[in-house]
């Protein structure tokens, strides 16, 4: 109720509009705006929408002009006895006082309701705050433990990287040593090769080079390993000037022993 603004509000629960122009006043001391009054009181029997009082009397519902004209004010109470005028004024003032009181009660009720709601919300928020505080505390401790772990990992990492660098240094050192040794070996091999005459591979029997034998016996000279092969796989039917030669009686200038001769000149010998 905006008492300071000197205006009453529509008593319809969902309306509460500031009244002006025409208003509907009831014998149960309620007042409604023109819209709700005309709507509610057109039905029969009329019932007050604020307190459910039956309004069946002829003057139980009155449509009043809230700002009457000067002419109306001049005439409405004219001719009435002073006590009647005062009685009417007193009843009208009582109506006003009741409306202000009702509005005051309504505001108090609304306030207490809002206060209770606020307290409820405060309680919920306090609980949420406490739980969030606890969560925060546990998260802080988690963060600090994580930081500790991170520090440990960092320490381990630096130690391991130092070890790795040390191993790398050792590896480089060993690689350098290996390279120098290899180069030295190659140089030594080259030196040895330069000082010694080149050795040609020669087939040999009993330690004597085969190429020497035919020439010492007057045999036709053949090249390379073919001689040795011929010796072991030669066809016995082929005429050979030395096949009939008796090694024991052969007068040869060769210093080779007789056994060696017969063995080498054996035509049907197994293939070696
Ligand atoms: Zn209304
Ligand atoms: Zn009423």
TrEMBL record:
Q: Which GO biological process categories is it annotated with? A: reciprocal meiotic recombination
Q: Which residues form a coiled coil?
A: 136-170
Give me the Gene Ontology terms describing cellular component. synaptonemal complex
Q: Where is the composition biased (Low complexity)?
A: 247-262
InterPro entries in alphabetical order: CCNB1IP1, Znf_RING
Q: Which UniProt keywords apply?
A: Coiled coil, Metal-binding, Zinc, Zinc-finger
Query: Is the Ribonucleoprotein keyword given for this protein?
Result: no
Q: Which residues form the RING-type domain?
A: 10-52
Short name of one Pfam family for this protein?
zf-RING_5
Q: Where is this region: Disordered?
A: 221-272
- Record keyword Membrane present: no
Q: What molecular functions are annotated in GO for this chain?
A: ubiquitin protein ligase activity; zinc ion binding
Q: Which PANTHER family does the UniProt entry name for this protein?
A: E3 UBIQUITIN-PROTEIN LIGASE CCNB1IP1
Under which name does UniProt file this protein?
A: RING-type domain-containing protein
The source organism is Gopherus agassizii (Agassiz's desert tortoise)
Taxonomic path: Eukaryota, Metazoa, Chordata, Craniata, Vertebrata
């Amino acid at each position: 109720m905006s008492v300071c603004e000197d205006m009453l509000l529509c008593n319809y629960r969902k309306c509460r509009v500031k009244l002006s122009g025409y208003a509907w006043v009831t014998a149960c001391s309620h007042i409604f705006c023109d819209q709700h009054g005309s709507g509610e009181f057109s039905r029969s029997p009329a019932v007050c929408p604020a307190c459910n009082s039956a309004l069946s009397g002829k003057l139980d519902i009155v449509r009043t002009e809230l700002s009457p004209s000067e002419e109306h004010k001049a005439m409405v109470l004219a001719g009435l006895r002073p006590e009647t005028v005062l009685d009417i004024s007193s009843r009208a003032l009582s109506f006003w006082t009741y409306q202000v009181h009702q509005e005051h009660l309504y505001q108090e009720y609304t306030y207490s309701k809002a206060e209770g709601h606020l307290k409820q919300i405060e309680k919920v928020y306090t609980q949420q705050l406490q739980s969030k505080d606890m969560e925060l505390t546990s998260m802080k401790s988690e963060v600090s433990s994580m930081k500790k772990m991170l520090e440990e990992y960092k320490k381990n990492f630096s130690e391991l990287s130092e070890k790795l660098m040390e191993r790398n240094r050792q590896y480089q050192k060993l690689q350098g040593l290996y390279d120098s040794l290899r180069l030295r070996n190659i140089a030594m091999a080259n030196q040895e090769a330069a000082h010694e005459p080149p050795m040609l591979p020669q087939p040999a029997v009993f330690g004597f080079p085969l190429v020497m034998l035919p020439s010492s016996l007057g045999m036709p000279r053949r090249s390379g390993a073919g001689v040795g092969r011929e010796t072991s796989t030669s066809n016995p039917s082929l005429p050979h000037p030395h096949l009939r030669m008796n090694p024991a009686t052969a007068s040869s200038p060769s210093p080779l022993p007789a056994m060696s001769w017969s063995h080498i000149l054996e035509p049907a010998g197994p293939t070696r």
